[in-house]
Amino acid sequence: MTQLLLTAVGADRAGLVSDVSELVARYDGNWLDSRMARLAGAFAGIVLVDVEDAKVDVLTADLGGLEAKGLRVTVTNTTARQHESEAVLVVHLVGHDHPGIIHKVTATMARLGVTIDDLSTGLREAPMGDGILFEAQVQCRITNATTLDDLRSELESIATEIMVDIDLVDRS
């Protein structure tokens, strides 16, 4: 079996997910994981599927045909890697919205050798009409490149600088 990561982008319309899932099912693929969203009128999705090695090329070709329906699908072969020694962490941050928050946090993580598995962000009204809050949740992994204490210390340091609250929870 081969794992494929599909990235799909196009103008939002009914049936996009159905079009992709139909092709995956046609080639006996297994839909493992996905994230999909409508952002600014466009559809963006990522899907991890398993498919028999002999069916990879035909599935890839048929997914390419979806561009005629307004959906560009990119296919990337992946290999699942699981490192049991890695600590799994969840970082939650919230603060008044301003440019550069995600860059500062992710640059710090990258410098420390932290790998991001999942990142979700959003805006919401602050309580009592106090403006717009930016909120992010990051699921990440650290290896022996750094320690949990070092990451916590670095994030606490930048939290003051960028004026956000950051909580870090070890989910290992």
From TrEMBL:
PROSITE patterns: ACT
ACT domain location: 90-171
Coiled-coil regions listed: none
Protein name stated in the entry: Amino acid-binding protein
